[in-house]
Prior knowledge:
The structure is a single chain. By secondary structure, this protein is an alpha/beta fold. It has 3 domains: 3-244, Glutamine Phosphoribosylpyrophosphate, subunit 1, domain 1; 251-440, Rossmann fold (3-Layer(aba) Sandwich), CATH 3.40.50.10490; 445-584, Rossmann fold. 36% of the residues lie in helices and 24% in strands. An 8-stranded antiparallel sheet has the order 3-2-4-1-10-9-11-15, with helices on one face. The relative contact order is 0.08.
Amino acid sequence: MCGIVGYIGPKEKKEILLDGLKELEYRGYDSAGIAIIEDKKLNHFKAVGKLENLANKTKDYHSSGFGVAIGHTRWATHGKPTELNAHPHLGKYSFVVHNGIIENYQSLKDKLQKNGVTFLSQTDTETIVHLFEYQCKQDQNAFESFKKTISELEGAYATLLITEVAPDTIFFAKNGSPMLIGFDGDDIYFASSDTPIIGKAKEVYYLEDGEYGYAKEGEVKLFDANGEKKFQKQSLSTDKASAQKDGYRFFMEKEIYEQSRVMSETMMGRINSNNIYFEELDSEFLNGIEAIKICACGTSYHSALASSYLFERLARIPCAVEIASEFRYKEPLLKQNTLFITISQSGETADTLEALKMAKRAGLKSLTVCNVDNSSIVRESDRAILTRAGIEKGVASTKAFATQTMVLWMLSVYMASLKGTISQDVLKGEIDAMIHTPKALIVNEGLHEKIHRLSKRYLHGHGFFFIGRDLFYPLALEGALKLKEISYLHAEGYPAGEMKHGPIALADSELFTIALMPRSLHYEKIKSNVEELSARDATILAISPMPFDLADDFIQTKYDSHPMLEFFEMMVITQILALEISIRLGNDVDMPRNLAKSVTVE
């Protein structure tokens, strides 16, 4: 996720950067750094860990007079949290900070290395500064070199670059990752969001994708694909808390809306039109694997359970899923040909970590799917795939679940391709569905308003049943968990076909049934199950692309060409339903009672 700040002007630059980064630290706290040019000389400082480490490191440094400055707080995506991997990244005479992922960084890096360029870090970002200096050798013009550098980048980026070649200038570009420019007279600020510049700038311009340019002498020159363009500034909000939430009422709501963007970042560099690729894995690592065992807790367990259908269906490999807290005490049989996968949002989940250690002692190959690089579980595992969800402040997980599920879906297709259990037509269909997933995660305002209106009818009763079949049974479990976590209402997820084996005894008008009814997977089967509940007078909220006459309430979905597209669209609906019910009940959505974000005890 990461956070960027920048400043050009005569004020004390170190404090402006540190103050700004403090407001962005929720976006990343693996490492932080600043770079300043004053009197045509570069100074820079980096520190691993939280921002206070950088503040301590720079306590004796002060800047004065006119200068340019950039800063960054990092959430690791390429390379571990080290000073070498921390931003800003240095060339011979330039520094760069960057949010996002450069998809083609490896090919650019290879080209530069062949031309004698030495890389110090493991990051994709370092490619930008070396590419800029390589272009400078050809052009002898800083802005033209920056323009050519940006034209070669593929992926998402918000980037600032300063250089001794143009010591009074900040170069900037934006594509996919957020960045804005703040104005106060001749002072110019840059940031990833409003909060770092509130109280400093009076006006703001929010950069659009494809825009780039430079700031110099109190003036900003802005360009896009059509050349130089004029832009309209607007007044800057003065409410920092609201700005950090980008206008959303709660962080959880913001994170639901972020899912479309972070899903794109999860796939970047890992998927193209023909294949799946994980730089974290090599084919030899998976040699001899004949079974998969996945261990996780809570929401991560639900993503694991969903993936088990995909591993068996696509990769044709047996997949068992275990709740980590139970796995540890069952004296499990662990065979050497089993790949042991752990899933954790924080990478510090105590039960999952202990389960991993058991598997390691038994000699199993281990892989973790995690959101936090250098966390305990990542360090303990043989291999790790990062979900790139960014920091999730809401205790009830949303985007972490979505990105975990996507990584596991990609992994199942990757393994299927390695094993030869998937045809080219099926492979193409899976990849096409993945590419369309971010669209299925976009929250339509009309949909949100409809769920808001519906929610007032679901504030009482004696419980909720979320029901689904196949892949949608784990989604039913997750939907019920979201509701109970933040509304404190009783909710269960259940396989739809199992309702008649006992739970249907609870059916009456005060039993709310949330029915996940995908068109692409067992529609007639689940329709029959829901009809049985309706006949017992249960209140039915049907979520489906197909109108259902017996539903008391109906939310129509748009995507029905692939089960996973339906899965993710319905996931968003269940998240918003839980959110709106909780808000109506007056609960603190982001910090539900009795819960913590990272469970570090058994």
